[in-house]
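Now for a sample.
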Amino acid sequence: MGSFAEALNYGIPFFSILIGIEFIYGYLVKKQTLRWMDTIASLSSGISNITKAILGIVVMLIGYDFLLRHLGPSQPLQATWWMFVVVFIAKDFAGYWVHRWEHEINFLWNRHLIHHSSEEFNLPCALRQSISEVFSFIAIFYLPLAFIGIPTEVFALIAPIHLFAQFWYHTQHIKTLGILEKIIVTPSHHRVHHAINPIYLDKNYSQIFIVWDKMFGTYQDELEEEIPVYGIKRPSHTWNPFLINFQHNALLLFDTLYTKRIIDKIRLWFMPTGWRPKDVAERFPVAIIEQPSEQEKYNPKSSLALKVWAAFQMMISVVSAMFLFNHLVTINESNSNMGFALLQPVIIYGFFVFLSIFSYTSLMDRRLSSLLWETLRLIFGLLIIVTWDGWFTLGGDFPFSTAYITMYLWLSYLLSFFFVAFDFTHDTSEDIRGANLWPQFVKK
């Protein structure tokens, strides 16, 4: 986790610069691919994913270190340059198949849906990563490497490099790259992958080397006559990354409860993505985009003030997350002033970051319930201040930090109240349609 946190210190500023360049370039060429609220939603999803990863909320069903200790040689090999090459290729091969299964198997789609939920295609949407992926099974692909005895630290170094190398090709401003189109994944290849046009669906799963798609029959060129339309066929209609992360499983759970046949209650989880038992599909139809050209992008009304405030809240969450992964040890060692603090301080801190993101993205959705979430956030934040004097370890470095944080929490609450009471129109039904965890059904 230390190497991952260190990589983030370089990755976050680097990604931010590239996103800024994309925004400026889009403005100059009069082809802007970034929408304000969509971009904030994407970045907020990235923050929540990073926070989840730092907190270690992932269960490795079979970890590589476990395989190495139990199946590998008694003495692992010393790391050499060729191992990094082999591990990179092996990770890319495994990534192709896990990625493909996430698209093709109903219950696995929930782990990946968030990444496709943006109706834009740009660098920020690359940061829409899952928080619902709790169980990881990718290590089963690394059995041969464990038998050989390739050390775990090789994977620790390659993992962030392989992940970050998938960022750059989420853009519409790079057309084709000549001979490279035959070797690596390019923006053109990945635009196809993110499109919901029938000819593009379930194509181009590769992460770095496009050869896997060509080898296993899932390759598709981007066609000049078929402009990609981005998003998912059952639109999420929300900026809230937590709702997006669990909407699909909510529908699976609903269908499990309401379908009559026992066999359907079981098999629907393992059927191709989107499959529903006939009885519930007829009784509770769900809106699906059949004609991509008729897509209506989610775009609730937002005042300039709300857009600015949402961006400010997102920046606060970025700073909060960076403080968390740069002070994990000291935060965990911070002493509580009260005896009821049973959870680890980092879990408390991480939950506050999650609650913050949930609150302001609900406000972006123009949901009246956002005031409830902001009230809970205020109470929780003040409770942290009382329990861990100085906001965990921050008080030691910045003597007035507690006062500033307290003022910020109250300002955040008052502004949320202002937006709900005065900025929102009285009728928000159209603006917030579908912005719920529970699936939205078509009225028959």
Remarks:
- The chain is about 55% helix and 0% strand.
- The first strand starts at residue 59 and ends at 60.
